[in-house]
Amino acid sequence: MESALPAAGFLYWVGAGTVAYLALRISYSLFTALRVWGVGNEAGVGPGLGEWAVVTGGTDGIGKSYAEELAKRGMKVVLISRSQDKLDQVSSEIKEKFKVETRTIAVDFTLEDIYDKIKTGLAGLEIGILVNNVGMSYEYPEYFLDVPDLDNVIKKMININILSVCKMTQLVLPGMVERSKGAILNISSGSGMFPVPLLTIYSATKTFVDFFSQCLHEEYRSKGIFVQSVLPYFVATKLAKIRKPTLDKPTPETFVKSAIKTVGLQSRTNGYLIHVLMVGRLFESQISTFWLGVSFPLSYRIVCNRLAYIHCPAIVTRHLCPVIIIMVVYPRTLQSTSK
Ligand SMILES: NC(=O)c1ccc[n+]([C@@H]2O[C@H](COP(=O)([O-])OP(=O)(O)OC[C@H]3O[C@@H](n4cnc5c(N)ncnc54)[C@H](OP(=O)(O)O)[C@@H]3O)[C@@H](O)[C@H]2O)c1
Fold first, then answer.
1. Distances, alpha carbon 332 to alpha carbons 2, 5, 11, 327, 335, in Å
2. Which of 76, 238, 259, 283 counts the highest number of beta carbons within 10 A?
């Protein structure tokens, strides 16, 4: 019995240390969350980074909302999309509403030979923000081999979701590096955070965007460039085929108003607090790989069922496990060692 006491003393300090560590991490996470979602970085996003903002896929959905939000902050806007009619319409709406200069470039991002035209269109502009937003998904979830016109879908999806991000960055980044400031916002997806079977190519291309953004941010942040990977869950747009917005499927305007607050503060973000809570990243910093390993099979199954937001039980488990161990298992271990 006597020999158990030093072990109990040791365990007591291990437990106390763990509790203190977790308390510190949780306080830090809460402080960070308050700073990002409560205060945000409203002032840092605007013409101070450069006169012009360039938005790909800027005539609808999330891209149009970014264009409007940046114009509202006084930035001149270049819209790059497919249909000239829609470009003209959105461009004159923005010009009239926000009294800023606009330009349009009509290209189809599923093609590869469009970048000379874009380069010409952007020549001489001081670009402060690039939003790589354009993207396409499946018409409906399907097994890889059963995707209609698979050859074309592979080519188009890689061109629009991956090639456009690399090539637009290649065109715009040199000017930003020269001026030592700028921001590149790459719209990935929640589907890029987890494997989503039946949306295989889309999910994989969005993971590319996420990794590309994280790597680029590390390479260029010391040169004054902020690169952000934006990973939304559902937003009520044509692409998502959602007409009626709800709290967890916001309008693109609501989503972008929230996401823009995180520019300069989070290099990887879900952009919208409800989506952050759905994916359980608020306290991510204190989740160990072990807890992630425990919850992943559960999250994975649910993501497979395309009910990603229901994977909250996995998140709760993940966060509660350390607490249960500290509150229940650890005191019992202490009791049994001291007997
Ligand atoms: N909505 C969501 O739930 C959701 C969730 C996660 C991630 N995302 C990502 O967010 C981004 C924007 O999606 P969204 O939902 O806002 O889409 P959206 O409402 O369908 O808007 C797409 C925009 O891209 C343009 N576009 C589409 N295909 C094009 C092409 N081949 N060439 C040039 N422009 C093209 C469209 O212009 P035209 O109308 O002229 O073709 C439109 O301006 C995508 O990268 C998507 O993967 C969306």
1. 18, 14, 11, 9, 5
2. 259
